[in-house]
Amino acid sequence: MTEPVKRRGRRIGLFLLLCLLALGAVAAYLLHDRYTGFADTPLAGVQAGETFVVERGDSFQRVLGRLREAGIVEGHELEWRALARQLGADARIQVGEYPLDPTVTPRELLVRMRDGRVIRHRFTIVEGWNIRELRAALARAEPLVQTVQDMDDAALMAAIGHEGVHPEGRFLPETYLYTRGDRDIDLLRRANAALEAALDRAWETRADGLALKSREEALVMASIIEKETGVADERPQISGVFNRRLQVGMRLQTDPTVIYGMGTAYDGNIRRRDLQTDTPYNTYTRDGLPPTPIAMAGKAAIEAATHPADGDTLYFVAVGDGSGRHVFSRTYAEHNVAVRDYVRRYRARFAGHGDGAEAADADDAAPPNEVEVEAAVGADAGAGRE
């Protein structure tokens, strides 16, 4: 072969090589462009509020299969695997429930699953709830795994490590976060631990001269304060009244304890016969504190129970104007005047609303205590409330 022919052959070979390299570069660019477009383009067909669950033991292949079952068709399996490997997510996908929103991209979804950014659900224990209300709310909580519905209260307390303890007041009112797969019993353990910690802190820093003898009595007192007022700055004042009553040997005579002792028989009214019917919780018929808390007390009520306000008041009654506030009095005579004003305001507000129970439901105001009404305005005015 002559030299010109050889040179011509080499030029053709070089040209073909350059063409192949150019085609390879174009193909690589197109593949990279497709890959980038796949990785950073929102997933089509995803509706707001959808979720995706990775279960224990799921392989990456199974996770991808679940995504396909959820209607996500974007991307070849090789693209998903390459992206997962690039992000370090191929062997680190964590168990849990993940949000699928219309703006999420494959890259963002894999990062969420790699980092365990699962959906956190909320469950709130409301201040003043009793154990029946707490259990009913737990039964409605989704997706919390239900395990305690067939347990009685004694079994429930044994399950959280407090065998023989009454369940009332043993769970701190707060909002608790949980993830899909968590159990109700685990949430209750957390709420109980939070209550014990808050009670310990309050008792360790309690005020001097406190009439309460133990942290358990402090919790009982806190539950009464919780039920007596929702006005934050009144809690220490009410605590002060009850603390002074205990110190001088007066009965607490607090309606919420009577109501608790009545159980489901309470219809919104407290009548003379209710105040005179003895139960372990009736502080009109029994000295001192009731045997257990009567509700779930929040941190503020626990703090108030252990740090009562100074003063000389021994009585209080609602203002009756819808504010939820109370009038505090030093003497029984002053208290009777306050009760008389309360009854007048109460009747003016609820004129035409039906009986006291209906009125209370309508405006969150407790009907007047029948015995106090009689003492303040005369037996005739109080008659007929039954």
Question: What does this molecule look like?
Answer:
The protein has 386 residues and is mainly alpha-helical. It is built from 16 helices and six strands. The termini are far apart.
Features:
two-stranded antiparallel sheet; two-stranded antiparallel ribbon; 16 helices; 6 strands; 386 residues; mainly alpha
Beta content comes to 5-15%
Poorly predicted regions are 24-33, 355-365, 379-386
Number of extended strands: 6
Cα Rg: 34 Å
Q: Give the N-to-C terminal Cα separation.
A: 126 Å
Summarize the structure.
By secondary structure, the protein is mainly α. It is 50% helix and 7% strand.
Indicate the topology.
Elements: H1 3-39, E1 50-54, H2 60-69, H3 77-87, E2 96-100, H4 106-115, E3 121-124, H5 131-140, H6 153-159, E4 175-178, H7 184-204, H8 215-228, H9 235-248, H10 255-262, H11 272-276, H12 299-306, E5 315-318, E6 326-329, H13 332-349, H14 356-363, H15 370-377, H16 379-382
Antiparallel strand pairs: 1-2, 3-4, 5-6
Helix pairs in contact: 3-4, 7-12, 8-9, 8-12, 9-12, 13-15
